[in-house]
Amino acid sequence: MNTKKWFLLLVLFAFFNVQAFPQAKDMISKIVIDAGHGGDDPGAVGSRGKEKDVNLAVALEVGKLISQNCPDVSVFYTRKTDVFIPLYNRSKIANDKHADLFISIHCNSSDSKSANGVETFVMGLHKTASNLEVAKKENAAMLLEKDYKNKYGDFNPNSPESYVIFSLYSNAYLESSVQLASKVQKNLLKCTHFRDRQVQQAGFWVLHKVAMPSILIELGFISNKTEEDFLLNPSSQKALATSICNAFIEYKNQVEGGNTALITAPAVTSGKSDEPTPAPSESANSLRPVDDTSESTPALATTGIVYKVQIFASPENLGKNDPKYLGLEGVEKYQEGNLWKYTLGNEKKFADVQVVLKKAKTKFPDAFIIAFQDGKKIPVTEARKLTE
Ligand SMILES: [Zn+2]
Question: What domains are there in the chain, each with its CATH number?
Fold first, then answer.
C-alpha cells in the first residue's frame, strides 16, 4: 500500500474512532471551569450572600490552583466576572475548546432551612424528587434568556415531563464522570465536614450538552445558616477550591498514570455543621463512591462459558421491570466498578446470543455481546476460541 492509501486509512480510522466510539481521553490537558449563574441571575440567595458570588470565587481559585500545580493543563472559564452567560453558551464554550473535563460549580438551596450537605452530580435521569428539584433550579437559568424558546425548544425546566428526554440519554462519558465526581465528593467532605449527600444523577442542561466527562458540584446549602457562613468565608472558599483541585489531580494521575503531588489545604476558621441530620432516604439511590469497597462485586453464579448481551450501563441499581428496560423482559444485572451493567440472555452458544442481540438492538441500538467464564468477564474473542 502506498503512503497516500495509508494516510487515508489513518484518517478514516481516526474519524470512526472519534465519531462512533467517543471515549474519555487518556491525557487531561484542557479543563473548563463553569461558575454557575452570574449577572442578572444570582442563583440561590442566602440571608447574606448570593450563590453566583460564591461560585465565581471558588471557580477562579480552582482554576488558579490547577494552573499553578499542573502547568501542562490549560484552564478555561465560562465566566471570570459577574456576567450572565446563557446555559447554552456554557456547554458551547466547553465543546468549542475540545476540553477534556467540564466542572460546573454551584451552591444548593432549599425552602427547609435545615437542609444541608454536599453533593456532586453527573448527568442522567433523576431517581428522586429532591434530585429533580436541584436540576429544575439550575436549569431555570434558561428562563432568563430572551430567546429561550428558540434555543431550548419544548424543554420547560419547571415541567417534570420535560425531563423524560434524559431517560434515553446514554452517556459515553458516564464512567469517567462518576470517577471524577466521587473524588470531588470525597475531598469536599474532608474539607467541609458537611453531610454526605453523595454522588447523584439528574438532568442538567449544561451537562447534557457537553461532549466530555462532566460534573456539577453543589458545594453546600446557602439557605442553611451554618453552611452559608462557611460558603461566604474567603478562607473556606480557598479550602473548597483546594479540595476540588486535589480531586482533579487525583483523577488526572489515575487517567495518565502520573504522580503530581496533592496540595495542602489552607486552614479554615470555622464551618463545621453543628447539627448533623440523619442521611435522607434518597441516599439509597445514590451512586457508589469509587473508594467504597464495602460491597464487593458479586460473582455471577455461572459455570463454563456464558454469553450475554449488555443493553446499557447505569450508576443506578434498578429494580425488576424498571421503565428504563423499555419493556424488555428478563433483564439481569451485575456490578462492575461504579456501574451496574444490565444484560439480556444466558447463552452457551455464540449463535444463540446473536439472536438475543438482534432482539435487544430493536430497543437498545448500542447493545453488544459480552462473555463470562465461570462467572468472570472475559473477552468475547477468547470465549469463542473456547466454545468453537
Ligand atoms: Zn446554581
Answer: 22-285 (3.40.630.40), 305-387 (3.30.70)
